[in-house]
Design brief:
The structure holds two protein chains of two kinds. Chain A is α+β, with helices and mostly antiparallel strands. Chain A is 16% helix and 30% strand. Chain A is flat and about 35 Å long. Chains A and B meet through strand 2 and helix 1 of A and helix 2 and helix 5 of B.
């Protein structure tokens, strides 16, 4: 397995959201680390597909805008 | 060559692809890639079961008793004969061969045979994530040797210009013939296939490959259930025998 490290320095973290029914809101089910959106989608589906979700979405953790964090309110 | 023979070839190849993917479930370059290898392996093993299940409704089942004793009777590509030793082999199979099988499944779903139209459609949705995985890893750059081999075997597997795939296309059973399948594969992968010279006179139309050989004995024993029997408790083995 030459030339590959198990953790890439280029990888970014994505939050994974899903819901089982249309009437419930999306909620966070976990996160994945990947170097691009395509691979993040493939990883999210592979990792969190054990439930029968009706919707799944991912968002780059860096794109989440925090109003305040724990301890700051 | 009938449509059943082609479906059996897809099934055997997906079974072997699933097994080879699964072998990397603890060896891939990241934890996420480990999980993806396991999940894609399970998907492809499931797809092979669905495809085997299509053989009976299609008519004559081409599977004979030789499949229990002769590994060369399985219709897998030579790319799957031995376990992969390099991650680049995994990526080339994921990006090129898995996509080639998907393109053929698209041709089955778009063709006139109802059982294939209905049963294979869901596979295309699941394969989207295999494709994203393979394409992304491909873009990260891998060695050319496994890529060239995977391209060569994929084009061979799609069939000669005047072979069974072309006939099934003319009959309407497949929505694409060899040229369209190859073009679709290239379109999906956003690249032209490397120059290949295939000697179709040496091509085996049943196994859809030019190289001789067969899967390794360990994998063949596992497929037949012999490996599991080694680890079965003696009482369970006795019960199974009675």
């Amino acid at each position: 397995m030459s030339g590959y490290k198990r953790v890439s320095g280029d990888a970014v973290e994505y939050e994974v959201f899903a819901r089982k029914t249309r009437v419930e809101p999306l909620h966070q089910v976990g996160s994945v680390v990947a170097p691009d959106d395509d691979l993040a989608m493939a990883y999210a589906r592979a990792t969190y597909d054990e439930e029968r979700w009706c919707e799944m979405a991912i968002v780059r953790k860096d794109d989440v805008i925090h109003l305040w964090s724990p301890g700051e309110a | 060559m009938s449509l059943s023979e082609l479906v059996l070839s897809i099934a055997d190849n997906k079974q072997m692809l699933g097994l080879r993917y699964a072998e990397w479930a603890t060896r891939a370059p990241s934890l996420e890639a480990d999980i993806a290898a396991a999940a894609m392996g399970l998907d492809d093993l499931g797809h092979s079961r669905v495809l085997y299940g299509c053989l009976e409704p299609l008519g004559a089942d081409p599977r004979g008793p030789e499949r229990e004793s002769d590994p060369s009777s399985l219709r897998n590509l030579s790319y799957f004969d031995e376990p992969w030793t390099e991650w680049s082999q995994f990526v080339a199979a994921n990006a090129i061969l898995d996509t080639a099988f998907t393109v053929m499944i698209e041709a089955c779903v778009g063709g006139s045979v109802e059982v294939l139209q209905h049963r294979l459609r869901k596979m295309l949705m699941e394969e989207r994530y295999h494709f994203l995985h393979g394409r992304s890893w491909l873009r990260s750059g891998i060695e050319s040797a496994p890529l060239d081999r995977a391209w060569g075997e994929a084009i061979e597997w799609l069939g000669p210009p005047d072979g069974d795939t072309a006939t099934l296309h003319h009959e309407g059973k497949l929505s694409m013939g060899p040229a369209e399948l190859r073009a679709r594969l290239e379109e999906q992968l956003e690249t032209k296939s490397p120059p290949t010279s295939i000697d179709w006179s040496k091509w085996d139309p049943v196994r859809r490959r030019g190289r001789k050989g067969a899967i390794d004995t360990h994998t063949f024993a596992m497929l037949r259930g012999l490996e599991e029997k080694k680890y079965a408790p003696p009482t369970a083995a006795k019960q199974a025998a009675t």
